[in-house]
Design goal:
heterodimer, A: mainly alpha, Cytochrome-c3 Hydrogenase, chain B, three-stranded antiparallel sheet, about 50% helix, B: globular
């Protein structure tokens, strides 16, 4: 394959480089950034450079093609830059988009993020490993258990401990339940964005049922802090099987209704089919993962291809699309609910007996009853909750398949009880990069459908 | 656990007593994960080699500030510097992952951009610039991404003053 090395230094025509550096001067003093540099620049002077940035690197255009793409460009007075957000109902949180329009056609787009930035990675450095999940669970608030899982798996890798079988299966059960609820939320918001408002109500209704189960087990609807280093916080409560079965019985007819309501509806298909298409090559170049990557027909799912937990003992199918458009991304998520139900059913059958957390006194707090009778248990309890447990020096990266794509956690430990550096590779953050690419040449009305189909969770984007 | 498959890729790597190398770059293992330690000069060339070798996708790029932890374990020949840029690449065909750790000095925090090879690094490099003040030479749009444009300082640096901005109403008497 041909490689394009350092497009912006040698192979780009001198003129374009000049134009780019005119507005985006490479900061020599890194403490300072120029005013308004985050925003979309006007189409005139930087058009060529921006165009090259948006198309060139992704499509691996040759210099000629890039110049051709530049020539197609319309003049400045025919276009208009508008602002969408940061508080637009369809931007799924506080996302701001700057769109350059010619009539109703989107020529360029630039997502501007950071409105929900609360420095969670920094906060993670101030919390002990036991407190860590309370922090990371607030990143992806639609699928909180996944971030907890990624964090816990990374800590366990650093500690080099194996959690008990039952904890592994509980984690699988709970995360798949969470995947169902997250995809149901997508169904709801996607419907709302496109104008199928009744779908919103149905989606929220079913999600509430899924959350009810999560609440029965963890005590909270969201931000559970349930999966912790060493296992899970509590065993499954009595009657959890009934809760799972109720959901598994309830969902199939409801999903069949979704199918009737949306897949068989010409307006729905017209709004989504062929809109916001992306190819597998572009996805890989942009680092896009999850349902978006699979919608292009690229067969990749970490649960099957680089299995974690006990996914290698589970039968399920990886759903792929073929066109990479909004409809495929919607259809894949709908189908993934069915696959998750399959996994949940297998968890139900195979759930082993045993401990729900590792019986290592240095990592797990002792059971409440032991504290009353054992001095040692009390000391361990006190030490773990005040000081936390120490994690050996080292660094590790563990990735899992969240409903939005590859969710990874990178932790550097200096041997103390707090992470030296905790970084979360958020799938929404990376997937959002594809927006300018997806939107090129589409209509303003489709912009909403496209944002929705990326399914970004802004809490995770900004962290 | 995720790197079970990565071991398939390890099979053809010769096991030596001398410092291990892969693609001509020092290699270490951290919890069964392969870590490469290119120097700043080797970085761009290594990325091109890896891209050609099937590592088509950049998964992650982040910075680490080792201001208070210079004693970390590094292969011989690599001088610990204050900053590190950590890059995660994935090879979908061989189900393999590679991690690159590049040392960046405090006096000259600049690294060539990976953007020409991996377009997906754009936002990640901006985030690293924003949080650590590490500049990426050749990046098309190196501006702050999470912090406001006029923000001063880089919040994830270890010497960033956390309590600098006073918290409103903190210490105010309770309302009863």
């Amino acid at each position: 394959m041909t490689l394009v090395v350092s497009r912006f230094s040698s192979r780009v025509p001198r003129r374009i480089v000049d134009l780019m550096t005119a507005t985006h001067e490479l900061p020599t003093n890194v403490d300072q950034t120029s005013e308004s540099a985050q925003e979309l620049t006007s189409a005139g002077v930087v058009a060529a450079g921006e165009r090259l940035r948006e198309l060139g690197a992704v499509l691996r255009l040759s210099e000629n093609d890039a110049l051709h793409a530049e020539r197609e460009y319309v003049s400045d007075d025919e276009t208009m830059i508008i602002n969408m957000g940061p508080q637009h109902p369809s931007t799924h949180g506080v996302l701001r988009l700057m769109l350059e329009l010619q009539g109703e056609t989107v020529l360029r787009c630039k997502p501007i993020i950071g409105y929900l930035h609360t420095g969670m990675e920094r906060t993670g450095e101030e919390l002990t490993y036991l407190q860590g999940p309370t922090n990371v669970t607030r990143m992806d608030y639609a699928a909180p258990l996944f971030t907890e899982l990624a964090f816990s798996l990374t800590v366990e890798k650093l500690l080099e401990i194996e959690v008990p079988e039952r904890a592994i299966w509980i984690r699988m059960l709970m995360t798949e339940m969470n995947r169902i609820s997250s995809h149901l939320l997508f169904m709801a918001t996607n419907g709302m964005d496109i104008g199928a408002v009744s779908m919103m109500l149905y989606g929220w209704r079913e999600r509430e049922e899924a959350l009810r189960f999560l609440q029965e087990v963890t005590g909270l609807r969201m931000n559970h802090n349930y999966i912790r280093p060493g296992g899970v916080a509590a065993d499954l409560p009595d009657g959890w099987r009934d809760g799972v079965l109720r959901l598994l019985d309830m969902l199939p007819p409801r999903l069949a209704e979704y199918d009737t309501l949306m897949n068989q509806q010409p307006i729905w298909r017209e709004r989504l089919q062929g809109v916001g298409a992306i190819t597998a090559e572009e996805c890989l170049a942009l680092g896009v993962t999850g349902p978006m990557l699979r919608s292009t027909g690229y067969d990749w799912d970490l649960r099957r291809d680089m299995p974690y937990l006990a996914f290698d003992q589970i039968e399920f199918d990886v759903v792929v699309g073929s066109y990479g458009d909004c409809f495929d991304r919607y259809a894949i998520r709908l189908a993934e609910i069915h696959e998750s139900m399959k996994i949940v059913r297998q968890c139900l059958e195979k759930m082993p007996k045993g401990d729900y957390r590792i019986q290592d006194k240095k990592v797990t707090p002792p059971p409440r009853a032991r504290i009353d009778e054992s001095m040692e248990a009390l000391i361990h309890h006190f030490k773990i909750f005040t000081e936390g447990f120490k994690v050996p020096e080292g660094e590790a990266y563990v990735a899992i398949e969240s409903p939005r794509g590859e969710l990874g956690c990178y932790i550097v430990s200096d041997g103390s009880s707090k992470p030296y550096r905790m970084h979360v590779r958020a799938p929404s953050f990376v997937n959002l990069q594809s927006l300018p690419h997806l939107m090129q040449g589409s209509l303003v009305a489709d912009a909403v459908a496209i944002i929705s189909s990326v399914d970004p969770i802004l809490g995770e984007v900004d962290r | 656990m995720t790197d079970v498959d990565a071991q398939d890729g390890e099979a053809d790597i010769p096991i030596e007593v001398a410092p291990e190398t892969l693609f001509g770059v020092l290699l270490t293992r951290s919890h069964e994960q392969l870590v490469l330690h290119p120097t700043r000069d080797e970085y761009a060339g290594l990325l091109a080699t890896l891209q050609a070798d099937g590592y088509h996708s950049i998964i992650d790029l982040c910075g680490v500030d080792y201001l208070t932890n210079f004693s970390r374990e590094l292969p011989p020949g690599i001088t610990p510097e204050r900053f590190e840029v950590v890059v995660n690449l994935i090879n979908h065909r061989e189900h393999a992952r590679l991690r690159l750790r590049v040392q960046i000095s405090e006096s000259d925090p600049v690294l060539p951009t990976a953007f020409g090879l991996y377009a997906g690094s754009e936002a990640m490099e901006r985030e690293t610039f924003d949080m650590f003040g590490i500049a990426f030479d050749g990046h098309p749009d190196l501006t702050r991404i999470l912090m406001p444009e006029d923000w001063i300082g880089h919040p994830l640096r270890k010497d960033y003053d956390i309590g600098r901005i006073p918290v409103q109403f903190k210490g105010a008497p309770a309302n009863r």
